[in-house]
Amino acid sequence: MFNNDRLLVQIILLVLLGACLWVLAPFISALLWGAILAYASWPLMRLLTRWLNGRETLAASILTLGWILLVILPLVWLGFNLADHIRDAIAFVRDVQVDGLPAAPDWLVSVPLAGPRLAAWWDTLDQQGAALMVSVKPYLGQVGNWLLARSAQIGGGILELTLSLVFVFFFYRDGPRLAAFVLRLLERLVGERAEYYLELVAGTVQRVVNGVIGTAAAQAVLALIGFLIAGIPGALVLGIVTFLLSLIPMGPPLAWIPATAWLVWKSEYGMAVFLGVWGTFIISGVDNVLKPYLISRGGDLPLVIVLLGVFGGLLAFGFIGLFIGPTLLAIGYSLLLDWTRSSHGGANRA
């Protein structure tokens, strides 16, 4: 016979839990990022707390301020540079409307086979600068809508990043108490295996962080080598940019493709081919090999589980899926192993 009072309490608790999740839903991603960032840098938090004689709030404030300076300042610098490029593009469009296109560049004329024809086509467009703008005007609206959508996504990402940097302060300050609460909750759910699963999640997240940071560092070093060989000015800055771009999916091509285009513009075709091949097979290719290896290293998960978790998580959840995918599959794989072992042990006892 059911206990009606207990059933009613359980229903109320489930409704309350659902309402809490509904309220937190807009912030789930930022909370996950804050938790991942705090966990990955927790050794720094412990070290700084020890230096400050156990003052956790002060240590959390200093570390959070450091992250804000490390992240916000590059974003501000990028925003100012992007604004300059947008102004240059607008000025170029206005010049084309008034004066037409500039003279065809020398490298365009020297393109094998198609060079003279491309130069003639360029001159034809140059004769009708205003007409050219009229012909492309129907497409400008689509391009503008696309840019507006991408700008909205970037703005949402920056807002999410800012929120995660706010949340990371609380994860720093209350980290041990939150870990104890999660452990008690897991003990109520899975019993004596709670600590094992908590360590499994923590280890998986740590390996993913190591894989992401390690792969980004390797891609930055390889990109720097390629830029130096190709004679790209500002190779060190581009290497740092490659490191930052490597933290997002398909980011490194945003660094080496413009550098390759610059080499083509300068008629350095041999170096352009070299940098294009180096970027495609070395800089971008290392991501498909090194990242899964670093993530699977030090754990007992099969490599195929790691690969499915990394790429499936990216497809399902976006960049945050890089952490969620392997963690979910690791927990599911371990639960299935425990279940099959316990079932096998029960069958033997029978």
UniProtKB/TrEMBL annotation:
It comes from Pseudomonas eucalypticola. Signal peptide: none annotated. One of its GO terms (cellular component) is plasma membrane. This is AI-2E family transporter. Belongs to the autoinducer-2 exporter (AI-2E) (TC 2.A.86) family. It is found in: Cell membrane. The chain crosses the membrane at residues 58-80, 154-172, 208-229, 236-257, 269-290, 302-335. It is a multi-pass membrane protein. It comes from the Bacteria.
